[in-house]
User: Fold these one by one.
Assistant:
Number 1:
Amino acid sequence: MLLAGLATGGIYSLVAIGFVLLWQTSQTINFAQGEFVMLPAFFVLAAMKFGGLSFAAAMGVGLAVSLLVLGLLFKRLVVDPVIRHGVLPLVISTIALAILMKEGVKEFYAADAQPFPAAWATTNLQVGGAVVSVQNLVIIAVAVLAVVALQYFLGATRTGRRMQATAQNPLLARVLGIPVGRMVLYTFLINAGLVALASFLVSPIYLAKFTNGETLGLVAFVAAIVGGFNQVRGAIAGGLLLGVADNFVAAYLSAQYRAAIPLLLLIAVILWRPQGLLGRAEERSV
Amino acid sequence: MKKALALAVLALVVAAPFGLKPYGIYLLSLWAVMTIAAIGLNLTLGYAGQISLAQASFVGIGAYTAALLTTQGWPLGAAFALAALLCFVIGWLLGYPALRVAHHYLAFVTLAFATLVYLILRNEEWLTRGVYGISGIPRPTLLGWSTKAPLDFYFFCLGVLVLASAAAWWLLRSPWGRAFTALRENPIRASSLGIDTRRYTLMAFAIGSALGGIAGVLYAPLVQFIEPTAFTLGLSFNLLLMVIVGGAGRFAGPFLGAAVSVLLPEWLRFSEGLYLMIYAVFVIVLLAFCPSGLLGLAERLRDSWPRFFKSAT
Amino acid sequence: MAAVLQVRDLRKSFGGIGAVNGVSFAVHEGEILGLIGPNGSGKSTLFNCILGQLAPSSGEVRIDGRPITGTRPCDLNRLGIGRTFQLLQVFPQLSVRENLVLAGQEHEGGMWSRLFGPRDAGLGAAANRMIEFFRLTALADERAGALSYGQQKLLDVAMAFMSGPRLVLLDEPAGGVNPTMLGGLRERLKAINQTARATFVVIEHNMEFVMSLCTRILVLAEGRIIAQGSPEEIRNDRAVIEAYLGN
């Protein structure tokens, strides 16, 4: 069961990382992050249903469309025009965007849950004395791979380091000749990739439904805060913690209050360790 | 000029229900109730600059308080008092730790709180009757005047709205109102002038939440049957949009925004499910061009009017 | 007699880079202390540490002998400390008079008395006096955002004084002000200093303004005090000249 928790946690982490990256580089609090995870699965389903594509091809199309819509278009059409007026209008805009996406799927595709094919076998293995589901293993493996790749990209490649510089000090980055606008765009694209990946991992288990975004969004925010808002590592830790706690509570305690876990963890963190588990205490700013 | 406009609007809302079918009167009453909640949210968002995603939850708390009390025979007045107090205290309890950390944390706390409240409303059947809801909520009788009929209840709602507006107006004209404006316009300067920005933000949030509760108390006898799904994040978003579209931080904003929000589904009825999507796109476009809402847009038009005439001649 | 402001061995570093490296000084009642130094010498950081916007890495700040290190800005106002800002910080949507009333309202009493007590409590009259003192009478009901830069600067200074502070920290008050108005500003500041026995600490780049206004001057370079004395002494101090002109 720990494995299941880690698997869920892995998915949460991916979503939380994207969320934190967006915040760090462009002061974007994306309240539609949950819906961003809900949508790619539907891109794939639509490609299969209306385009007659095979699952593999549809996944490719789904990923490409996600990068385009959730990355490029999101930045150009929503974030750039609105952020001129401040962070608050942008937050509201992402809320409106979430509504738009949810209703869009409900109207143009289907209101009920759709099965989503898995790219792996849904069997169980016997490891040692315990029964382990292949699904969880695959999810954990993919999530770990994605995170490692991302960390490598950010830390070891030139572009990645430039992106980090942009996140830490956009003004200085610009002075140093780093094309800040492009770096920010890359962040949006990375986020789009992360949420698409999370979508492909989570939809086989929980089915694709237009309301999926609600819980996932809340989890993303709380994971980011619990881990420490200003750290990618924190988002990973937060995501894992939430995943494990979520499964634990559902199994041993009340299943009905499962969704209250994010709130309780959030309150706990705010009261006792406001900078998050891994975050640094933020300076009281001028 | 503004006073004349206000009086005209007042005359309009008093005269409006006559000649309308019961459904129309219901919409007007709904507008009045939503405006009260929006006035509260405007305090939180438009003046103190905080996003609250829990306003619907406070409306729900108010509604359930009213439902539980009045179906047991208690007067609605008791529900008003209790709901306002309860929501104020909860608002304070939520905001105090959140604001101590950082400015943007309150939004997340309210989001989580909204989820929690919904769960409680749905699961704690011994109290709220869960998904079955509470029905048969009676409408009050004031000094012999029964508000059972739609028209009578509308005037009751209108009366409460007028009281709430007057209270908000008085608050915003007071030194507190000045402090709210200061903390919205320039929190750093405000704080160097001795304005305790944290405390005033907290106050605005608590009062705003209390107003949400009051709106809820009015909502219950309006619809006479309540159940948990009426008070989810969807309504919170709707209230947020009301404040934004009308014009955040402007006194008349909530009135306009609530009107748009209540009437829009009716006007866009032909598009069925699409109306929410159209609304959402409209909001995004509005925010990109004129974040101060429709009232802000109107102001801009009014200011550029003389130029328009000048260039035309 | 305790100094109005006493700073002891204040240090502030940002991730290994020391902005303020052990600064100590005292300001006595009625003094106008000038704080000068080349760009990056740590003047603004020092101010922000004193004024509670930043928490110092070490060292302490005392007002009338009482430690106030790290107190929140809004609480400092009640202790009789005011400040002006380098970048204009008036409330542009409010009128000049409203700006001043706002500046004075939080100084006394509690939140609740402000809500339920008498509306004006003398603030309107005090604002009018301030308007006259700073010769803004003709503009009293104008929106602050509509004033010229120099006039807004005057308003900025006036707002800092509304609560009758003992100590005021002025951050580049002459910055961007028309030379013709500078004389008036200096003269108003001197007048307040005399009549209200208010103590000032002034950060400024405009040498002439500093020399003619201040009674004593501190020179900061690389986060340390390299000279202090009367304007005359500072003008001729070699270390100061070197710090400014480089070597």
Number 2:
Amino acid sequence: MNRIGPFLALVVALVVIGLSAAQFRHTTYNIPWLPGSETEIWQVEARIEFDARGSAAQVYLTLPPEQQGFAMVSEATASSGWGFAIEGDQIQRRAHWTQRAPQGRQVLFYKLDLAVSDADTWELPPPAPSGTIIWDEPYQTAVSHVLDNILPITADPHTMALQLIQTLNRQPPDQNVSLLTSAYAGADLMQRVLQTAGISARAVQVLELEDGRRRQALADYLQVWDGQQWRLYDPAVGEVTKSTELLLWQTGTPGVLEVLGGTNSRVSFSMISQSRSSLLLAQEQADDLALSLYNLPIAEQSMFKLIMLLPVGAFVVVLLRVLIGIRTSGTFMPVLIALAFLQTELIPGLTSFIIVVGIGLSIRSYLSTLNLLLVARIATLVVLVIAIISLFSIVSYRLGLIQGLTITFFPMIILAWTIERMSITWEEEGPKEVLLQGGGSLFVAVLAFLLMDMAVIEHLAFNFPELHLVLLGFILLAGRYTGYRLLELKRFSAFNS
Amino acid sequence: MSSWISPFELKRRGILGMNRRNVSYISRYNNRRQFPLVDNKLKTKLVAEEAGLAVPKLIDIVATQHEVESIEQNLKDLDSFVAKPAQGSGGKGILVVVGQENGQYRKASGDLISLSDVKRHLTNTLSGLHSLGGRNDVAFLETLVRVDPVFSSYSHEGVPDIRLIVFQGVPVMGMLRLATKASDGKANLHQGAIGVGLDIATGRGIQAVLHNKLVTHHPDTGADLSKLTVPNWPSLLRLAAECYEVTDLGYLGCDIVIDRDRGPLILELNARPGLSIQLANNSGLLPRLRLVEATKTKKMRIADRLQFAIENFKHDDTWETLPAF
């Protein structure tokens, strides 16, 4: 137990565990480090329309895969009378609506909230080996010519894709290109050409995010596997680097929308961008987190906001007592007073505390002449404190001082004990000691209050409870501090001579 | 002399601070299980008596209200006595009766009180009025300690007591505490008592402090403090060293009084002795504690431990009169 090594290891472990757990929660659940930070949210709405034929209908809508740059916040559908399910895996999810006998024009909605995030959570998997592409003549010859022109001047899949896009978009087009573009659409054509050259490529559908746009269609883009990752290309321009404005919606071969039992189907997209509190966002997402304070009822949550501040106050007490050597009346009484200050605000709280304790002390001095037993004495004080507080509230309300009412936040029993303890100190060690201890207690309480009142600290204490492990580490460390206390430098100043 | 001192200077002088005392000495050398033994004066007394250590003689234990009612029987033949709560705090609840006159009791202050006053005092004691945290307590009566004539001019009121820090059975530092009018008969330095640092080898006064300042004369009686030597020093030292065996507390404060007739008596023991003793001795505890830690004193016989203390902790100016053991 006296070995310092294991002890230090424990402290370091606590600090490291606390910090890394907090970092983990920050990156995984996007809980912001600072209060008041905001996240950009894209609200995307897919609107599916079709004419039902009165027979059993099934609607499949391909849903965007998890991807870099976005984190899904929530999704919902609005489609009364339809059965709804989400099928598939992370790579390719599909929404599936069903109804026995719909009639006439049908409108289904799928809503998706996406948070813009830097989190590197998901990589699209590498491609499956693709089959050989078969071209009919004369396209086969045209493709060979195009490839013969490109191959010598490129080095890898990436440059290959860029060259191909340039070639296909060159104006005026050469005749091979004209032949190919007459038969195949841009992204699809490029995919086929690249695959012929043995490069993994695919045509994907992408939603171009632009605030306030309505009735948008998906755009065709090209994805090329460069050996490590999928790179996205706009078939008309070239490589796309900024991916946040583009939402990859569909990567597989089946179409985005598939309707069985309906005609004239079409899907269109609307989107708006919003800023939302990052914290609220994280809390919304916390539903799936079993062990989270966010899952508690709101009333308990606000309770915990206070409870989680207690360790901060306790830490202040430890520091001030161990490092400074301040004497307080009652070890953690100042923390409870500071907690009360949080509700009353500092100046009203301080004033009413001094008034109540002052009146209490003067009445207590009379009580000591009655020679009461301890328990009866404390009980008397509790009654007195309540009387003083009631009177104080009524008077201050009459005077129009609403703040006087917050005095009820003070813990009465603690006040009674404080008065009792101070009174005993007064009798045993004189008024100077009472002033010293009372002043010390208030000093600690005010300092603890100032810390606990800081928005950052309140935010961190509640949203990153694991940071308390770090605090615990420091408290343990302070518990083994064997150096001098600041006030001992004064106490022992006689040794200066 | 500035009112602050640098921590390096304190360290250089080997001053023991509160944190180091708590972490490196009290919690390391004092087994928590032994604390109740010293926190309860009655238990201390009984254990010490059993071990053959000199203590003020126990007259009676009053543990129940029933015993309070019949106390007159036991008081009948007593000329003087002291009633104490077993777990009193800060010297509270101590009733000193110096004589009986016509069925009334004369207190140390000279006031006369009746039997019912004594009974009320005992009842209050039992219900915890004078005790730490207001817990129910036990009262006990012991014989009155008579001040040794050597001290009569040094004491304002009550009996001066000698505090010895005993570390691992070795007395390492000592101080005589003299109550003053300002300290209201109490012997705590921060309450205004005088602390006289004592040479561990001889029991001779080194210097005296009052409120952290050097003094040469008692403020109330005017007695010259520099001439002061504690009588019976060798047996007092031995008594303190023996407390280690009895309590098994490695870092111990022994409060000893000197009775006119019986010599040194253990008054009480303290598992958390204060640090002011360093001021009274104008030297730090740390070098002495470290020296003891570095020596295997635990296995030494008492006489060897005392010899060790005398040789190592003697004050330089008084080396010529080493007593023999």
